Sequence to fold (321 residues):
Amino acid sequence: MPATMHAVRVHTLGGPEVLAYEEIARPEPGPGEVLLRVHAAGVNPPDWYARRGFANIPEGMRPQVPLPFTPGTDVSGVVAALGPGVTEWQVGDEVFGLLRFPSLGARAYAEYTTSPVGDLARKPESVDHLHAAGVPMAGLTAYQFLFDHIKLEPGSRVLVNGAAGGVGHFAVQLAKDAGCHVIGVASGRHEAFLKELGVAEFVDYTQKVAGEAVRDVDCVLDSVGGPQAYRLLPAIKDGGVYSPIFLGEYGEEEMARRGIEKRGRQVRSDGGQMAELARLMDEGRLRTGVDSVFPLRDAAKAHERAEHGHIQGKIVLQVAD
Fold:
């Protein structure tokens, strides 16, 4: 096993151009950890938030970003070595997971990284590493919001805003699989993709305001947020649930007046839930939409793609052949 590896590092905060492809020392797993040979790494919003110093978050709430750092939390790869006391995994096991989130320091944009054993699950046998690496953060966010926070019930009318994106396209499939009537909101170019995934109704937000076109939904999973997010509130029935993932203007006064409950929290690493997502994938009930793939050395180009928006599924870095 080599003593060094290639990784993407950030030495100064800024745009995609600050992502540097470098050769650095390979890490060693500590107690309760494994060393992973990373085959693919998923690209997620917190990756570019950290690269910019979390400038999207109010100043008093921003996490401190230690420099230099290696971005990334989502991996699919192979166990290369075991730390002291590890019995849960064996060298050669194919695994995937969301590493160390929401704490910083996962370091997924690298040829090798370390992971706590509890953050991992066995990679689905039915997909390659590229498709597996697109699952962890987005898939766990959709799963935790729908089942831990919203507590979805069969037969519910569910509106997914930003339905074609990373979280959105998993939420559509999970809600459909749970027996719900799913309404997907995205731009028109994603309509065919979302109908393949199981949306019962599609709203093109470039043509209609979803809050005016839809009524009587039990819950909204909003993966967009931002200014005027409250425009979705008319779609929710009184006493329903609004579950936003990002910061935004959600109209708390109207929600309180109409008995609409706001539910959600930061996604967290969970190997057990990753195993459930893997099971659904192997049973053909869940799949990863891959927007684009970039080699690790071109992580800056992957971030440029992300900043252009209108992503269909996930952006993934290919680390090993």
